[in-house]
Amino acid sequence: MGERRRGHPEAASAGSLGGYLEGAADGSLSGNTVRALRADLERFAAWCEERGFRPLPADAGTVAAYVEAMSEDRAPATVRRHVSSIAAAHRAAGERSPLEHAEVRRALSRMRRRKGSRQEQVLGLTWQLRRRLIEASGDRLIDIRNRAMLAVSYDAMLRRSELVALQVVDVTLDRGGSASLLVRRAKNDPEGGGAVLYLHSDSVRLLKEWLAASGVSAGPLFRVVRKGGTLRGALHPGQVPRIYKAMARRAGLAAEVVRRLSGHSPRVGAAQDMIASGIELPAIMQAGRWRSVRMVQRYGERLLAKHNGAAQLARLQKRS
After folding, report:
1. Inter-CA distances, 88 with 19, 47, 250, Å
2. Counting Cβ atoms within 10 Å, is residue 204 exposed (0-12), middle (13-18) or buried (19+)?
3. Higher-confidence residue: 35 or 202?
4. CA–CA separation, 171 vs 154, rounded Å?
5. Average pLDDT value for residue range 304-310
6. Would you state the torsion angle of the CA atoms of residues 247, 252, 257, 263, taken in this order, to the nearest 10 degrees?
7. What is the rounded CA–CA span in Å between residue 24 and residue 31?
8. In the predicted model, is pLDDT for residue 34 greater than 80?
9. pLDDT above 70 covers what percent of the chain?
């Protein structure tokens, strides 16, 4: 079990754990990444405090016990991410990474054997679902915003952090009714080289409706809408999946469907629609700004299976 250090002067708090990490990052990590790491470390520090364990430097038994506790109700990928965050804080503090300890690696191996390593697939908001959510939305200012958010996110295949970071100036209207969208910084573009993306005219109409109704003419494109239609600042990335889930519930989608929606669901759905339409992987990767085919293949694995060698052979054999 973990080493008990209740009241020990070296026992790191959640704040100091995050402080070690932010100090080491020195601007090399995105703000969203640092926030996610901090949340993981706060959870670990709170868990240690409840049990009188020292979180930094953590005993190998402490981290192994944390893996066992987390894996009871968390997905393996989530547990691995938490352990990676703990390891990052240790390295930033000049301490040995818990992942170097055999006891921690054995705990992770037991979790994989017990629960498997396959992640549950995020539900893609494909074109049909996108249309259903938009058609079911209401006439309030918040509904007008939500429609525009979903449409823009689908067309440009945006991550939730990219969506909330958009500025009005990032939208350039074309004479044909479509528009181009500048994404200044992305998860795989930490230096901010940026990318110019496409918006179809139907998405532009929804976006114009939002800008006209809200009066937004500069600054953050998508704003918080309070009761009564009062606008605040830019949305937080964590609000994006809640918005999609609320739209899905209003559209009457099943609870299990709503549960599987995430902030990346329009991005996943657009990729799935492209695969189903026979668009080649290089074009899909360019649209989604992926550098490897792994994520595209994972998002579209069921659709791609219908085009693999076995499926093609069955068609050539004209099997019935």
Report:
1. 12, 18, 41
2. buried
3. 202
4. 15
5. 66
6. 0
7. 13
8. no
9. 80
300/297 Cα distance (integer angstroms): 5
Which residue, among 82, 138, 132, 73, has the nearest Cα to 258 in the 3D structure?
Answer: 132
Q: In terms of residues, how long is the chain? A: 320
Q: Two tokens at 48? A: 């240690």
Exposed, middle or buried, 19 (CB in 10 Å: 0-12/13-18/19+)? middle
Q: Under 8 Å CB-to-CB from 175, ≥6 apart: which residues? A: none
Instruction: Give buried/exposed letters for 163-180 (b at 16+ CB in 10 A, else e).
Output: bbbbeeebbeeeeeeebe
Q: In whole angstroms, give the CA distance from residue 193 to residue 40.
A: 29
| Cβ atoms within 10 Å of 302's Cβ, excluding its own | 11
User: For residue 175, what pLDDT is reported?
Assistant: 87
Structure tokens at 248: 């899905």
Indicate if the alpha-carbon torsion angle 197, 203, 204, 206 is positive or negative: negative
Q: What is the pLDDT of residue 88?
A: 86
Express each pLDDT in 86-138 by its tens digit.
988 888 888 888 888 999 999 888 888 876 655 556 788 999 999 999 999 99
User: Would the pTM count as exceeding 0.90?
Assistant: no
